[in-house]
Each structure stands twice: as structure tokens, then as C-alpha cells.
Amino acid sequence: AADLVTKTDCAVEELCFKSLKAFYPDHVFIGEESTSTVTRCSFDNRPTWIIDPVDGTMNFCHGFPFTAISIGLCINTLPVLGVIYNPILDHLYYATSGTGSYLVSPSTGILCPQRLPLSPSPVPSSLATALIATEYGASKDTDILHAKIRAIQRVITTPVAGRGIRSLGSAALSMCMVAEGGVDAYYEAGIHAWDICAGIVIVREAGG
């Protein structure tokens, strides 16, 4: 089944494009909602903004508070800037290459940016001590579901036994949890550029 698309997805993407184009009219823009209607999109060395207007649309529709706006910038095809904002929890994650990753969360009363990870912990020596995030995706195809279930079984059973699996329903926020130190790793099959572009920078600048 196709992902849910709401009026909010389209409106947020249009707002992001319009706002950024006012400052960067010569840049390239790739968005989930506009790109999904075409067969191919151009991606080259030009500055390119890659945007997921509502990552976790199903969460948004059901009131599950893990949904985010994800905005990434690539230059020479490499991600150099990432901004991920959860408007429900009022958590803003951001990073640029070489400057570190940060979290601002006014809802908690902390207005100053906090550098990520929040609580540095030793890198797990093996999957046996790792908490891992993944997503199941929207596909109901039997073969795809069986493949994902088998992958999870391999992660949490011997000889490769993870401590546990978590699923937030948002690729962007799962990557933020890696940067924050809440989970040790994140993986997902069938991911798209707009799901991870911003998160790549945030995780990398947090030391991941």
C-alpha cells in the first residue's frame, strides 16, 4: 500500500520550498511529495535541498507524537546540513558539517542548544549490548514483510543477538535518537533520500 499523503504533507513541502527559494533561487529542490509523482529527478553537484515535509505521516494521522519535518542540504552530492524538527514535542535537531550536532527543546524549559550526544556511552562491543531501531514500512507485500521479519530475527537471535528492537515510525527521528544516544544503531530497507539526508549529517556530527 502507498504511504498516506495528507494535505499537511503537501502544504508543508510547498512552504519549505517557497521559503528556501526566496533565499536560494538557483538551488535545486527535491521533496518527497513532488518527486514521488515523477519517474526521475536530477541530482548532481549543484546545491540541492532534500525535504521530507512530514516524516511519519501515519503517526501524524493517529496522533502518535513522533513525526518530523526533515530538511537536508547536499553540495557536490554530499549531505552538509541537516535540520529535523518534531513539532509535537517541540524538539529541534540540527547540524552542519564540522560544527557538531545540537538539540533545542523549549518544551522542556531548556532553551540553549545541547550538543549531541546528550549522554555519551561506550560504543557497544557487539550487538548483544546494543539497542537497535528499525522500521517496518508501509508495504503489505507478503514477501517484503517476511524478509523484514527474517532480518529482525537475525538481529535479536543467536549468534547475532541484539539487546532489543525499537520502532518509532519515523526514519528521521530514529536517526536523531542515534545521535542523541538513545539507541545504538538504526537500519531500514527501502529507504529514500528525503528520509535520511538530514539525519546523516546529524548522526555524523554527533560522532556516529
TrEMBL record:
Cofactor(s), names only, from the UniProt record: Mg(2+)
Annotated catalysed reactions: a myo-inositol phosphate + H2O = myo-inositol + phosphate
Stored InterPro entries: IMPase, Inositol_monoP_metal-BS, Inositol_monophosphatase-like, Inositol_monophosphatase_CS
A Gene Ontology biological process term: inositol metabolic process
One term of GO molecular function: metal ion binding
Pfam families in alphabetical order: Inositol_P (PF00459)
Keyword presence, Endoplasmic reticulum: no
Biological pathway: Polyol metabolism; myo-inositol biosynthesis; myo-inositol from D-glucose 6-phosphate: step 2/2
Binding locations of Mg(2+): E32, D52, D55, D195
Record keywords, A-Z: Hydrolase, Magnesium, Metal-binding
EC number annotated for this UniProt entry: 3.1.3.25
UniProt record similarity statement: Belongs to the inositol monophosphatase superfamily.
Record protein name field: Inositol-1-monophosphatase
Provenance organism: Batrachochytrium dendrobatidis (strain JAM81 / FGSC 10211) (Frog chytrid fungus)
